[in-house]
Amino acid sequence: MTQRISKYQRFKMMNPILQFFKFIYLSIKIMIVVAGGHGGTRKAN
Amino acid sequence: MSKIVILGAGISGHVAASHLRRKLSKDHEVVVVSPNSNYQWIPSNIWVGIGRMKSKKILFPLAPLYKKKGIGYKQAKAVTFHPEGDKTEQKPYVLAEYVAGEKKGTQEKVTYDYLINATGPKLNFEATEGLIPGENKTYSVCTYTHADHAWHGLNEVIQQMKNGKKAKILIGTGHSKSTCQGAAFEYILNVEQELRRHNVRDMADITWISNEYQLGDFGMDGMLMSYGSMTMKSSEMVEMIFEDRDIKWITGAGVNKIEDGVAHYENLDGEYKTETYDFAMLIPVFSGHGFKAYDKNDNDITDKLFKGFMIVDADYTPKPYEQWSVQDWPETYQNPSYKNIFAPGIAFAPPHTISKPRESKNGKAIFPSPPRTGMPSGITAKLVADNIIDSIKSGKASLHHKGSMGNMGAACIASAGYGMTQGSGVSITTYPIVPDYEKYPKTQGRQLGKTFGEIGLAGHWLKLALHYAFIYKAKMRPFWWLIPE
């Protein structure tokens, strides 16, 4: 059965104060994933 | 002194040109050859397509910036590749044809020591009969001019709905092998929100049509991701959003023909169906530009350089899906035949798709091509530039910088509605982009935690912040290089 977005979840999703902190958290987390480096995958090259 | 020629001034070409210019002395020449006069920040086309952002906000002219920064610029399109030169020209060159100004129509041999092919994809609308932006009630948001037209088309339908006419809106992919489902996903959510803002949502039926086997595939075989305290499939997440927004969906659909207000498609069950609409935005299939290449004796060597897109250090050996591996994906984007040619971003030929290939009962291939969004385009362009810089500075070939899409993270901040207090965004990160089933066998090839999804207002702010940050970076304003790709 499809998961539904509850009223409480929606409140959290659209609350500017909660979302401000989420914005900071997401910015840092995304930076860690994306700027966290990249490289090859082959052992010998 | 070395001369580096970059074909294309999109995200990939522009990133390469700006890093090369910053790190190489003026003794070395950096030249950009692009038919486009403007740089455009493509991810914001979505907002142009709903009339919430003017196209001038997402673009700026290239010529003044390149002049100021000492980057050569030719507003021309590449015609043929000559990696060995020819009988009269010793150096390798690209034959380019000017598309504007006094030299319009004239051709020039643009010689190089290093060539970066960042020509991106051809938007192959012709591959689907009747899929023409602005005709047959179909639109596109692939360029800012297309997005402008899309907004005019959508606005007309909104006005009709305000006058009491019900409307059907169809958004998704316009070919059985299209990619860039993410852009269509953003657009459908933004359109839905705009209809609510205009108080006409109850007048519209909105339908998603896509070549994905399941919702949330995004050309990446879907994802298993962290969502809050849960672990969720991307298909479940997108289904939850579509249910919440009352958006219907058709998956496994290969659109093959467009008539005025009618999309014809074949599904994986082999059924031929149609879907009517009053407004459609359908992403075309991407293809290579059909460039030809010649050796010094004028023999056709296109096969050495191109396989649709440009051949790079990938493993192109045909093999079944079960044997695909992340090691097949390129690391340096260097052409194996001509070591001074590179193809980052969307210009390289992928070894295979990321999504599992599927066929309809009639044998028609219906599955997404691999996506290569702005972030990997920028990262691969920078690593190619860095390898060229190292090679020039050390005087010997260097391929120290590597970046396989199988060992690279990407963020997709999908706008789900515009507005500082009413907006929304679906923030998704994926690590790695190409699933590594050996390293992460129990989590569908991806690392949980680094692969996560979030929905909410913060996502809209994030996308807006990225819009301004990346345009600042592209304009090469002070300390632009501190902003990562």
Observed structural traits:
heterodimer; A: 45 residues; mainly alpha; 2 helices; B: 485 residues; alpha/beta; FAD/NAD(P)-binding domain; 5-stranded parallel sheet; 28 strands; 24% helix
The gist of it:
The complex is a heterodimer of chains A (45) and B (485). With 45 residues, chain A is mainly alpha-helical.
Q: Would you write up a description of this structure?
A:
- The complex is a heterodimer of chains A (about 45) and B (about 475).
- Chain A is mainly alpha-helical.
- Helices cover about 60% and strands about 0% of the residues of chain A.
- Chain A contains two helices and no strands.
- The longest helix of chain A has 19 residues.
- Chain A is elongated and about 50 Å long.
- The model of chain A has no long low-confidence stretch (mean pLDDT about 85).
- Chain B has a domain of about 240 residues: FAD/NAD(P)-binding domain, CATH 3.50.50.100.
- Chain B is about 25% helix and about 25% strand.
- A five-stranded parallel sheet of chain B has the order 5-2-1-9-25. Chain B has a five-stranded parallel sheet with strand order 11-20-12-13-16, covered by helices on one side.
- Chain B is globular.
- Chains A and B meet through helix 1 and helix 2 of A and helix 6, helix 8, strand 26, strand 27 and strand 28 of B.
